[in-house]
Specification:
Elements (H helix, E strand, L loop, with lengths): L1 E2 L5 E2 H10 L9 H24 L6 H21 L11 H21 L7 H25 L1
Antiparallel strand pairs: 1-2
Length: 145
């Protein structure tokens, strides 16, 4: 929260500066300072709890899981697709379309099973993992041909 009475300083930072100050302004008592701190802590706690509970709220574990599963699915799809065995005859657009079809199917399957964590950001992370897994598998396949 920005406290306009004290300039454009977030309330938590204003209270922290008061705590560090050598002297308090004349109108501030220990009790009034404590009450302001408690109110700000409660406000910040409510905002944090709300952000965590919202679908699509940031969770590093969910992001890492989506990226890892995307990588595994990309690797598996690139290794298993028989159309790609003859990749030398495919244009880059054709291979991209095949990869994108696999990525959409894998992403839908992953998030259909986990609707509570689905968000645009997590889908992007899954897609990035899928693309890296796909590219790594294709590269390894090219090295073994």
């Amino acid at each position: 929260m920005t406290n306009n009475q004290h300039g454009q300083v977030p309330e938590a930072l204003r209270l922290a500066a008061l705590f560090d100050a050598d002297e308090w302004p004349g109108n501030v008592t220990l009790v009034s300072y404590a009450r302001e701190c408690v109110a700000e802590l409660r406000r910040l706690h409510a905002l944090t709890a709300q952000a965590i509970s919202q679908p699509g709220g940031f969770d590093a574990g969910d992001m890492a899981s989506a990226a890892a599963q995307g990588y595994r699915d990309g690797w598996t799809a690139a290794q298993a697709d028989s159309v790609l065995e003859d990749a030398a005859r495919l244009t880059s657009e054709q291979e991209y379309a095949i990869r994108q079809g696999h990525e959409i199917a894998a992403s839908d399957g992953y998030f259909d099973a986990r609707p509570q964590i689905e968000s645009k950001d997590r889908r992007k992370v899954f897609q990035a993992g899928f693309e890296r897994g796909w590219d790594a598998a294709r590269k390894q396949g090219a090295n073994h041909d």
